[in-house]
Amino acid sequence: MPTTLNTDHFWMPFTANRQFKSKPRLLVAASGMHYTTDDGRQILDGTAGLWCTNAGHCHPKIVEAIQQQAAKMDFAPVFQMGHPLAFEAASALAAIAPEGLNRVFFCNDGSESVDTALKIALAYHRVRGDGLRTRLIGRERGYHGVGFGGIAVGGIAGNRKHFGPTLAGVDHLRHPLDIARNAFSHGLPEHGAEIADEFEQRLLALHDPATVAALIVEPVQGSTGVILPPKGYLQKLRAVCDKYGILLIFDEVITGFGRLGAPFAADYFGVMPDMICCAKGLTNASVPMGAVIVRQDIHDAFMSAAGENAIEFFHGYTYTGHPLAAAAAIATMAVYKSENLFDRAAATAPYFEQAAHSLKGLPFVKDVRNLGLVCGIELEPVAGKPGARAFDAFLKCFWEKGVLIRTTGDIIALSPPLIIEPGQIDQLFTAIGDVLKEQHAASSTVA
Ligand SMILES: Cc1ncc(COP(=O)(O)O)c(C=O)c1O
C-alpha cells in the first residue's frame, strides 16, 4: 500500500473498519475477469465485484458510452423535463424484461429500487380504491438493501436491530434453507416447497389477505448465503398472490441480467412477478443505477386515476435516469445481446456446478449449493467464533491465492462475471479447496 494513503476518514460500509485499516486490501484497476491490487497483483474476481459486473470489468463499449456522454451532457432534470437517453434506456430494459412488464421507474441502486417498488405497491392499491391493503410481507434472511422499506421487509437481524421498529404492518415468511434435507443439491433443492404454504396458512390467515399489499422475495436469496427456492416453491407463492390480489415483487438485484443464464430469474423459473427490482448488472455496475420494471396495467392505473396535468406518482430522485447511467445501461444491454452473455452463462453453468461440487468431502464443507453462476459453500464454524472460518478463507484467498471471494457468516458466496472461462473456474475452486485443506492442517497441528 502506498504509505501516504490516509484511511482515517472513509467510514467503510458493511466492513470491519478497524480490521481492514490494519492491513488494507486495495484494488486500483480492473479489466475483464481481474482486479489489479495496489501492490501490482492480479486477482481473479469470483464475485463480479458485488454481484454486479456481469459483462466483466471495464468493458470497452460501456466505457466509451460513458466517456462520450460525460463530455456531451452531464446532467438533465427529469422532473417535468426529460432527455432522450432515459427513455431509450427504459425501452432497452423493457425489451429484455418478461412480457407484460414494460414500464420502468429508474432510481440509483438496489435499495432505492426496493423502496420504490414497495411505494408503487401501496399507492397502486390506493389509487384503485383499495387503500386497506397496507401490509407488506418479506422473508427471513431476505436482503432488500438498506432503506427503511428494505430493512423492514428484509430479514437480517443485524441490519434491523439498531434502527427501531422501521415500518409498521410488516411480516415475514420462513426462509426455505434446509441443509438437513437438501445438502449438496445440484441446482434446485427437492425438498421444502411446502414452506410456501405457510404464506397462506399462517401469515394471511393471521393478518387477513385483504390487508396485504405485496409480497417481496429474492427468487434466489443471495446476500445471506445463496438460499435456493425448492422446486415448485415460487410457483406456490405466485398462486397465493393471485388468489388474494396481492402483488408479487421479485427483487432481482442480483439475479437479473443473466446470473442464472436467463435475462431474469422470472424467466428462468417461468414465474412472472408483478414488479421486478433491479440494479447492479443494469449498467454492469459502471455507473450507479437501479430500476423497477412494472406490469403495464399497474402503471396505467396511476395514469387513469390522476387528473389532467396532475403528477400521477409523488416519488423520484434527482438522479433518476441520469444521463451517464442511462448511457451505460443502453451500452450494457447492447453488450449482453451482442456477446450473447446470458446464453453463455447458461452454457458455463454445468461446468461451474461440477467444479463447485468437487469441494464436497473437503474439510469443513457442510453444504454446496448452486444455480446458474451462483454458488454457496457453507462451512462448519469454528466453535464459539461464528464467521471466523469463512473470513479467514477470504483473507487467504485474497492475499495468498489471488482470488476474490465473498463471505457472509460461514458461507462463501461466488458469483463471477458471466465471461468466466473453465480454467478460471478451476482456479477459483482449487484456491478455495487448498485454503480449506491448509486451514484443516493448521487446526490439526494446533490440536
Ligand atoms: C437482493 C438485493 N436487493 C437489494 C440490494 C441493495 O442494493 P444496493 O446495495 O445497490 O442498494 C442488494 C444488494 O446486494 C441485493 O442483493
TrEMBL record:
PROSITE patterns on file: AA_TRANSFER_CLASS_3
Example of a GO MF term: beta-alanine:pyruvate transaminase activity
Listed CDD domains: OAT_like (cd00610)
EC numbers on record: 2.6.1.18
Listed Gene3D superfamilies: Aspartate Aminotransferase, domain 1, Type I PLP-dependent aspartate aminotransferase-like (Major domain)
Keywords linked to the UniProt accession: Aminotransferase, Pyridoxal phosphate, Pyruvate, Transferase
A Pfam family annotated for this UniProt entry: Aminotran_3
Needed co-factor(s): pyridoxal 5'-phosphate
GO biological process: biotin biosynthetic process
Family listed: Belongs to the class-III pyridoxal-phosphate-dependent aminotransferase family.
Protein's name in the database: Omega-amino acid--pyruvate aminotransferase
